[in-house]
Amino acid sequence: MQINVILNGKKKRLEVTESEFLADTLRKNGCPSVKIGCNDGACGTCTVLINGKPTCSCEYLSARADGAEIITTEGLGEEAEKIVDCLIRVGGEGCGYCAPGFVVLAYALKKELPDADYDEVKAYLNGNLCRCTGYIVRIEAALEYLKMA
Q1: Are 92 and 140 a contacting pair, CB within 8 Å?
Q2: Could you give the residue ranges of the DSSP H alpha helices within 39-125?
Q3: Strand arrangement, sheet containing 53-56
Q4: Are 52 and 46 a contacting pair, CB within 8 Å?
Q5: Beta carbons within 10 angstroms of residue 140's beta carbon
Q6: 3-state secondary structure of 45
Q7: Measured between alpha carbons, how far is 7 from 26 in angstroms, rounded to an integer?
Q8: Which residues, at least 6 apart from 55, have a Cβ–Cβ distance to it below 8 Å?
Q9: Region for residue 27 given its phi and psi (left: phi exceeds 0; alpha: psi -120 to 50; beta: otherwise)
Q10: Which of 49, 59, 48 has its CA nearest to residue 19?
Q11: 120 Cβ neighbours under 8 A, 6+ residues apart
Q12: Were both Cys, which of 26, 106, 127, 148 would link to 34 (CB 3.0–4.6 Å)?
């Protein structure tokens, strides 16, 4: 079956199967940043924006995305670079496997709660697991990103 989406700002017609998950579809269509960690929506590594909302793409059927706007880390451009720079400045770079999901979440956070405080950032980022750096540096990086113009 085919679905029509806007993927990182470009109209795309994608071939999918009825049981295919969006993470797999995105990876085979030029979005290698979409990682699959747990395969059940628990780790946040596969987070993308679907119509502006953070969504775990490993448990989202591709067919449901027909007509949607999807943004991955590849589609964030300079904003992704700013977020990564914040991570590096606070010592939160780690192995990087979970970083794409974090970048998407931090971007969505800034859109949804631009004046978020520490506790709001902590709650918003809950669900993006990191085994390397822990969570305090991620919260600090997100808070630093929120301060950027």
Answers
A1: yes
A2: 78-89, 99-112, 118-125
A3: 10-15, 2-7, 69-71, 47-50, 53-56
A4: no
A5: 18
A6: coil
A7: 9
A8: 22, 47, 48, 49
A9: alpha
A10: 59
A11: 113
A12: 26
CA count, 13 A, side-chain hemisphere, 46 = 21
> What's the predicted TM-score (pTM) here?
0.94
Question: Both tokens of residue 31?
Answer: 């979005």
The one-letter amino acid code at 141 reads A
User: Closest Cα to residue 44, out of 34, 53, 31?
Assistant: 34
Strand pairing report for 53-56 and 69-71: unpaired
Report the C-alpha gap between 56 and 43 in whole angstroms. 9
Q: Which helix (H) or strand (E) holds 13?
A: strand 10-15
CA distance linking residue 41 with residue 92, whole number of Å: 22
At 1, list the tokens. Answer: 């079956």
